[in-house]
Amino acid sequence: xxxVVRAGLYAALTLAALTFIYxxxxxxxxxxxxxxxxxxxxxxxxxxxxxxxxxxxSRAPFGRALLNSVFVASxxxxxxxxxxxxxxxxxxxxxxxxxxxxxxxxxxxxxVPGQLTLIPLYTLIVQLGWIDxxxxxxxxxxxxxxxxxxLRQFFLQIPQSLIDSARMDGMGELRILFTIFWxxxxxxxxxxxxxxxxxxxxxxxxxxxxxxxxxxxxxPQLLTVFQLGGGAGTLGVSLAAxxxxxxxxxxxxxxxxxxxxxxxxxxxxxx
Amino acid sequence: MMQRPRPERSSxxxxxxxxxxxxxxxxxxxxxxxxxxxxxxxxxxFMHWDLVTPxxxxxxxxxxxxxxxxxxxxxxxxxxxxxxxxxxxQIVTALGLALALNRRLAFRAFWRATFFLPVVISGAxxxxxxxxxxxxxxxxxxxxxxxxxxxxxxxxxxxxxxMPAIAVMVxxxxxxxxxxxxxxxxxxxxxxxxxxxxxxxxTAWQRFRHLTLPMLLPQTILVVTLSTxxxxxxxxxxxxxxxxxxxxxxxxxxxxxxxxxxxxQKMGYAATIGVALALIIGAxxxxxxxxxxxxxxx
Amino acid sequence: MPSISFEKVxxxxxxxxxxxxxxxxxxxxxxxxxVGGSGSGKSTxxxxxxxxxxxxxxxxxxxxxxxxxxxxxxRDVAMVFQDYALYPHLTVRDNLSLGLRLRRMPTAEINRxxxxxxxxxxxxxxxxxxxxxLSGGQRQRVAxxxxxxxxxxxxxxxxxxxxxxxxxxxxxxxxxxxxQRRLNTTTVYVxxxxxxxxxxxxxxxxxxxxxxQQIGHPIELYRNPINRFVAGFIGTPPMNFVEGNLHRxxxxxxxxxxxxxxxxxxxxxPGSVPSKAMTLGIxxxxxxxxxxxxxxxxxxxxxxxxxxxLVERLGGTSHIHFDVGPHRLMAAVSGxxxxxxxxxxxxxxxxxxxxxxxxxxNALARAE
Lengths: 271, 298, 368
Hints:
The structure holds three protein chains of three kinds.
Chain A: H1 3-30, H2 51-59, H3 62-93, H4 99-111, H5 114-128, H6 134-138, H7 145-155, H8 160-168, H9 173-184, H10 186-202, H11 205-210, H12 219-228, H13 235-270
Chain B: H1 10-44, E1 47-48, E2 56-57, H2 61-68, H3 70-101, H4 108-120, H5 123-134, H6 140-147, H7 162-187, H8 191-199, H9 204-215, H10 217-232, H11 236-241, H12 253-262, H13 267-297
Antiparallel strand pairs in B: 1-2
Chain C: E1 4-13, E2 16-26, E3 31-36, H1 42-50, E4 57-62, E5 65-66, E6 77-80, H2 92-102, H3 107-121, H4 136-149, E7 154-158, H5 166-183, E8 186-191, H6 194-200, E9 203-208, E10 211-216, H7 218-223, H8 228-233, E11 240-249, E12 252-257, E13 260-264, E14 277-282, E15 288-289, E16 301-313, E17 317-324, E18 327-334, E19 344-350, E20 355-358, E21 363-366
Parallel strand pairs in C: 3-8, 3-9, 6-7, 7-8
Antiparallel strand pairs in C: 1-2, 1-4, 4-5, 9-10, 11-12, 11-14, 12-13, 14-20, 15-19, 16-17, 16-19, 17-18, 20-21
């Protein structure tokens, strides 16, 4: 590459990078500014204030929503990993009548758009009396077809002799799964864990349907309700609320960005 | 020695037993949360149900209503407006950034991570953030315009600008994802092909037009398919930013479905919208693939 | 007395029969080799002993205990796998001890056994390494160690040397043989390599298409192959075969084929032969070059004339390929001065070394 071209390329990349980063930096700084200063482009607040956070925290139960989100996303992730790998293990490594059907149905599930099943699922939750419960937020996500297919694909690559050897050592299937397969499948498990957790963490539509009690709302839901209900009042306050949702994700992303990209791009393509 | 009654292929049976107990929870889950909703969605199309009184048979009411419902038509039309702006923009920006990243660069991982950042952020946050960026008086974008000597633009309140504005925002949120897809595709173009076309004396543009672009066709199809599906799922952005306005110009199908279920308690009609949406997505994706396929063959 | 007996064992995968009517008794302390090509059923038999494959019908006993339907862990057998099956995330020490820990053996005993096996296999220095850090031969030793520490009734080896290069394979072969003799544990060893079978086995079972072809001591199989398959399978380089017919002239019997006529020792032939069409077999090492000189046993050997096609020099011996009429034969001869390509040479086929196979492939004359 000629130096001119190279310089142009870096300039373009920098400009592109700024359009992705600057809004978030501006958001972070705006939450620390008094209302009249919010519109300014400057990133360093003139009058540093935590007032936006105080107001946000006092007007809606964001602490509780944070805990709800962590609880719901962790439970779902744990289930998708544990129950999902049990299912994937059986589908990949055991012979039993029904295996082909299970495989076919799992792939079929990926083709069904979520909108098709949204309303019947909602009525099911209503009929089960699960409205305003954690159960409603968690149970429909206990399994994930994308996760099962990814894990199955990974499990298929583990040599049969390891299973044979473990069986001769007296291990049962669960023990083989968790003491032999899991240590070998760490990368696949990490990928599944990330996209599952992030999917749950960012989900809004489902909680909006099945939870009305503020005490049970997840973060993105409470944030949306807060914004629409006009509870924020000013831009600074609503951005401060958004920060509660963003900061943990960005911190995790900074450390694990390679896994995040692999996980979320991979799941998106397969799902 | 006593001949014990022995079960034929007993170890086989043991394997089946463990397999069934390992997969039973999933099978039950599939029945309750995948199979049942699909069939019940189809049943709901022929029902009136407000979740309070028992459901009643609706015959063709819901379908007839849907066909004549101007609001549903508006929402579908809006989606096509959205896609008309979003799809080309998404392809061009994703491809451009992927081509830039596909060179020997310093800090490649950093650039890539930067472009991908909005993908990991919740759509609700992005909507709130862009609400602020688009704000007419204190918004960042209009402030920037003012610095450059322009006059403020009512991004989300002008009926003809609001949907394009949302399309730009969604492009911004998802572009990193498609950059990764294109980058993966670029890895598969063999070095020997690049060298061959270079020896043929092709210019940079010709190389792109006759080698890179055709080789990336599978990725382009994927980008088109996924962003189309994504476009039909538009919900949180209009919900948070415009409420579907101004003049219903940003009203989306899912938003309409949500409103019918949640605000009007019309489960039958909401499910009908869901079924229709699934059919439309299927038809549009199939049509796109056919068009892109013929374009390739030509 | 850990002996293994198979009684009419059958194995089907769906409708496909992979092992048919397999009956065999493996003696206590014996090293029995199952040899055959792919699809011969040899690995399936081994896996049925291990309990990794179910038995369709028949009985397998270890001593007098019917193990046919026991779970693998209850059989007290240990197996060395083709790809070693070492747990990649565990150290060598943990790989060796895992099976014992799962059986809740006291730690002191585990340590004693691991130390004993490590010493015997000379892998003490590798105990803290992970399998990835080991060479192929070292992995092979660890895999054997894992079987040894179990102190099982029976060892099972599933093509344990096939992932090693030739020289290492020869060395490990000797080690396995030595180890088995020292431990004196009943062993079933599966291989497709007949050299491995010949050098290791106390007895060899030759399998094809799920059926036993012949059971016997290595030298027995070499001398008296029961059919054409075994004759072709055992021995390197493989036996020469020529299709032809039997002719009786007065009291003498000849094997005749185009360009070739071999007198057979009539007293060793049965009075009536099932068919006139026959296959003659002769091992390359039994074929000698006449070199124009008169041979020792004039009547006992047929003299043929052949044109040399190809000479493979192996050093001490040479493989000489030549055409006899339309037939292609090979001779393995010693000496460093083989004939040149294109030469026409005299060849001697000693009639007492000849094997005859009827049209159904079964051996006819035991020409010892």
